[in-house]
Amino acid sequence: MADIVPSDKGGAAKYADSLTKYIVVYVVILILAGLQFVIAYSHLDGAQMFLRMLSLAIVEAGLAVMFFMHLGSERRSFVWFVGVITVFVLLAMQYSWTDSYRMEMGVPGANYKTGTVQ
Amino acid sequence: MSQADMTMGVHTAGAMAERPFAIPTKKLAMWLFIIADAATFAACLVAYGFLRNGTPNWPTPFEFSPTVINAMVMTFILVTSSLTMFIAMRAAKLGQKSTAFNWTMITAVAGLIFAVLHLREWMGMIHAGVRLFSNPWGSGLFGASFFSITGLHLTHVVCGVIALVAVGLRYKGGRYNSDDLEVVGLYWHFVDLVWMFVVPMVYLLNVKH
After folding, report:
1. pLDDT of residue B1
2. Could you tell me how far CA B31 lies from the centroid of its own chain?
3. Which of A86, B10, B125, B200 could in theory staple to B130 by disulfide, Cβ–Cβ 3.0 to 4.6 A?
């Protein structure tokens, strides 16, 4: 059955504010992305580099979600709905990290010789 | 059953129901899809991280030129396309139909340029000897993870370009309204958002020092 709900005309209010704010967000995202490239060439160990890059990526993503995707302007209940589900699922995937450091022979398919997968 | 249900019939009673979270159902559906797709990409990246941690001879082959420079350009194009898509959505919500259509098409062209640059990079990697299960530098898992993650993202970009053109043309023709453009815009912003994680995890952690 066709969606007979009318267009979300109330949504126009969310887009009526100045474009300057969103251009500033765009520039900030570009700067944060540039910082990731700088971190890549800094003399940090792998874990530090990963954590810093991931933190910047999360901030960039947050800005994109809240401003470009306008999640920040939606109802608070919807923001919680999206945020809690997404964060829970992402965190639930992280339980297996410690195993990757404990395998004596590495992961299946890894080998110590340069070349093909066994 | 309410008075409205009894007089209007059950099949039209939905018109009286409050929209969930006060947003159109198609927008809610897109958000649900985005959550599911975010989980998919996160699973791919977590699996990649697990493989990288557990592989002693993981190669770090990416030179500044051309790979990292290419990644910078691609990032700039995709982030800029998010801005152009936002401008298109804004124009659509404010009733500026032709402006909205033009910016949507600019976004689609930016996506196309991104896809071409990405394919050009793939050709360079293949020419350097990287295959799905082998490469000249280290563990064969490198190629498998690189091509699968970037390939999945590239597929999303290409589908996004097709969707932008299709929805943009229908919007211009009057079949779709600003809500439909907003929904495809959400998808496009999500594609950009994923790239913000792919670049550091897949490219920048594997640069050659």
Report:
1. 52
2. 13
3. B125
Chain B residues whose CB is inside 8 A of the A93 CB are 39, 42-43, 46
* B50:A7 CB<8 A: no
**The tokens 């590239």 sit on which residue?**
B154
A86 assigned to some structural domain: yes
Q: Is the pLDDT higher at B70 or at A14?
A: B70
The structure's pTM equals 0.86
Q: Is ipTM strictly over 0.85?
A: yes
Rounded to 5 degrees, what are φ and ψ at B59?
Answer: -75, 150
Q: Is A42 touching B (CB cutoff 8 A)?
A: no
Tens digit of each residue's pLDDT (9 = 90 or more) over B124-151: 999 999 998 888 888 888 999 999 999 9
A33 falls within a domain: yes
Which residues, other chains included, contact B193 with Cβ-Cβ below 8 Å and sequence gap of 6+? A60, A61, A64, A65
Report how many domains make up chain A. Answer: 1
- Chain B residues with beta carbon closer than 8 angstroms to that of A4: 14-15
Nearest to A60 among B35, B141, B196 (CB): B196
| Distance of alpha carbon B100 from alpha carbon B84, whole angstroms | 10
Q: Answer yes or no: is A102 within a domain.
A: no
Question: Domain extents for chain B?
Answer: 24-206
Q: What is the pLDDT of residues B75-128, one digit of tens each?
A: 999 999 999 999 999 999 999 999 999 999 999 999 999 999 999 999 999 999
